[in-house]
Design goal:
single chain; 13 strands; alpha+beta; 2 domains; D-amino Acid Aminotransferase, Chain A, domain 1; D-amino Acid Aminotransferase, Chain A, domain 2
Length: 220
């Protein structure tokens, strides 16, 4: 397999001058390089990233491609509760955070045309998968649910953190199972953000989401 031009991405939050999940990002990147058989970068990625600590608030995009790592910096995305639609574009397997993101780009384009903030993708078989840059959770009675990894969604660092905190259950759920539920998105840049609406229906707030959000960022 020719992997020229095929790369891996890590999108890393600098928060209050710290990089809370740096070791998790480096670990995931190392695992993906190994499992995909991609060349390791000549640079020390930790050494590239750590100088950005102390800069207040920022987002770092680390891309590793053809044995070379680059870091670019951008501002934080919006952290307000988003209006989300279900994309007509089907989710394709995305177990590694790679540069091959066509289905997510198409879904984000659908959201833009619909004049909403973002889109949720569903698999060809009809199972809820993930957002364009985030994992999704919802409250179902007394329990917390999220799509199962065997749907070949991304093992998000924010997702892993929520499961550590909330003891959520992985499941396969059709899109209709989310109707009337309180949902939130999560990633390691935004943290936990409740949805404002899904397909035009208002999403009710849940105090348990706010409590998880309060505990999400590690203290050290």
């Amino acid at each position: 397999m020719d992997t020229t031009g095929f790369g891996l991405i890590e999108t890393i939050r600098v928060r209050d001058g710290r990089i809370p999940f740096l070791e998790q990002h480096l670990g995931r990147l190392d695992r993906s390089l190994r499992e995909l058989g991609l060349p390791r970068p000549s640079q020390d990625i930790a050494a590239l990233v750590r100088p950005f600590a102390g800069t207040g608030e920022a987002v770092l995009r680390v891309e590793v491609c053809d044995g070379r790592a680059t870091v670019t910096v951008r501002e934080l995305p919006a952290l307000d509760p988003p209006a989300v639609i279900t994309a007509s574009e089907s989710h394709l397997p995305y177990p590694h955070k790679t540069t091959e993101r066509d289905c997510f780009v198409e879904a984000a384009g659908e959201a833009e045309v619909a004049e909403v903030d973002d889109a949720l993708l569903v698999t060809h078989a009809g199972w809820v998968a993930e957002g364009t840059t985030w994992n999704v959770f919802w409250w179902d009675g007394g329990g917390l649910r999220t799509p199962a990894l065997d749907l070949e969604i991304l093992r998000g660092i924010g997702r892993t953190r929520v499961l550590e905190l909330g003891k959520g259950q992985e499941t396969r759920a059709p899109r209709a199972a989310l109707d009337g539920k309180s949902l939130f998105l999560v990633n390691a840049v935004r943290g936990i953000v409740p949805l404002a609406s899904l397909d035009g229906a208002r999403v009710a707030a849940d105090p348990r989401t706010a409590e998880l959000a309060r505990r999400f960022w590690p203290e050290e």
